[in-house]
Write a structure and sequence with these properties.
5-stranded antiparallel beta sheet, 684 residues, 9-stranded antiparallel beta sheet, 12 helices, alpha+beta, 24% strand
Amino acid sequence: MHQSGGKANRPEKRDRHQTPVQVVQPSPPTVPWPRAKESTKAREAYRFLNPYNFVRYLPPPDIPETDPDAQLLGRCPPPPHDRYVGLTGRITCTLEAVTPLFIADSHDVQSTTILLADNREVQHKNYRFFQYDGQDAIPATSLRGMIRALFETVTNSPFSVFNGEERLEYRIDPIESKRFKPGIVLSLPDGDQPGVIALCEEATIGAYHEDRNLNVLHGDWRCGETAYAVLSTAKNGVKKVEALAREQDKNRLLKYNKPLVKGWVKITGRTIETKRNERFFYFKEGAPAKAKHVHFDAEREADFNAVLQAQLHERRDDFHSQGQSDRLASGNLVYVELEPDQKTVRNIALAKVARLRYRHSIGDLLPEHLKPSEEYERLDIASRVFGWVRATPAEDRKDRVAYAGRVRFSHAVLIDDKGVYAEPMPLAVLGSPKPTTTLFYLRKKDGEWSEEERKRPGSATTIGYDGPNQLRGRKFYRHHGNSLNRLEYERAGQRRDHQNRTVRGVRVPGNVFQFTIDFHNLAPVELGALLWTLSLGEEKCFFRLGYAKPLGFGSVKLTVDQVDLLELSTRYCSLQQSGWRRAEVGKRSEWVAAFAQAMQRCYGQSLDRLPHITDLLALLRDPVPPLPIHYPRTDVHPDPEGKNFEWFVANKVKSNKMADAGPNLVLEEPGDEQGLPLLTKEKE
């Protein structure tokens, strides 16, 4: 109900000495969790859908200069806030949960200490549903984020949240490691002087063989430590160390009646289960002065340090390699890849199966018209409606760097309480996004990758960020519908540790919330775009909201109940009239039609046939085909350890022989998906 102001609407004053009345909220009804559904498919026939896919973006709009509505779909100055020049009012919406719904609260987080099998103590977190004034609610920020993401997609607006400067890392395929040569850093770049690395030879040192007689590396050797070795040649022509000793113990090697070779032990640790050897670096002629010298610049040094720092800090839990220092330094034992001139270093790596940094950033693969707005006078429609903050510092302090949005969301309050699930639920492990999975996140700019492009070595410049590719689109988590399965969202064995979270008070399907969106100074085509987005529920689509969306939580049906307009002339010219009036359905349809027609004039096709809309509808409707939905893995049943990476390892294997390569599967287009198969990592 809208208030017109005045004394009659003011709340009565409370005696400041009066004791506040404590209202005890009744407990919501409780419902048992559904049972898990076991698959009856044989492993070979089993297919599944990935929890996310991408909505394609459109090319830049072709905006007629004499079309004011179409102009608003491009970049233009925003309207002022100090006067009324458009439509002002309120949209009232209801939101009904159709799958389990959970919004985490930052208060009352319970933490339990868990002792792992390796005797490490970790913390397991347990969260409650978000509360406002003591009642379950949905925060306005969550609603705003959900609707803005959809609005940006529908209007083909730039990405508002986008870290375009980031350069990702990748690990080369083992077959590519043959390009890397061992070397010792002699000096670092200094001004105009490049850094120098002396190329050397290497021999294997048995270290992790099950047959201990094959192991030569014993004791507490450190990476980079000077050593003396007795070398021999294996049947495959590879040099190997027969015996190893420090300088003070080298006389015990004389019994081998072979020359002693001075060098350095290169230890990276048992980074994979199949690793058996470490390395021994040495100079063939005995001195670095006689070795071939190659040169590198400060950029290569910076790339090496960036990868190393990420391994030491961001991935410290799963980084087990040993190193000589926390930055590249003289005396470091490294592997280098050379440019075609064989004199200049292209990449420096800690290990032979190298982790490297792409030359291009994520932003290099995003078309210019989809990059965030940087100028106040050229804001896209989403920035003008929802607000904008300049991402980069302004050179002139007088430049405008922000614009307040013209929509304001309320919290969503519970109006029909259907209850919560009775027991807390330990959820399956939810990992972070993996944009380095380029077969999923990228697509070729022109056409599709050929089988050879996907499977051959050198993927960084074919299917990676350094290739002729672009970002696949906008990432969306699909609606699970009848494919929702406790088998997928509950942690196998109900395990609780630092990798997963427990949630309590999860709202069951059927709970209904209500919220409002106040809008200010919107043009009819802008209001039409917002209403079209909010009306996706009429297209049998379900919005995705809250926590655990990859597991199937958070599908909601959104309905626009009413639209009210505020007529300012009536409000300010009358003491009796509030100025509020209900917008008829026909008028709402006019605004929606104005937007749809403007989109058609900009992109040459009716809105419902544009590829970004067909993709979006496919992901937000009930899945077709109705396959299980989960992250790629190696078995029909979820792995308690969450080792989903083994599927990706098996998928991306490269080889010059197509038959020896992995399948290198890509994500199928939404609406055309047949499902992905289970893959097993082959033992090396």
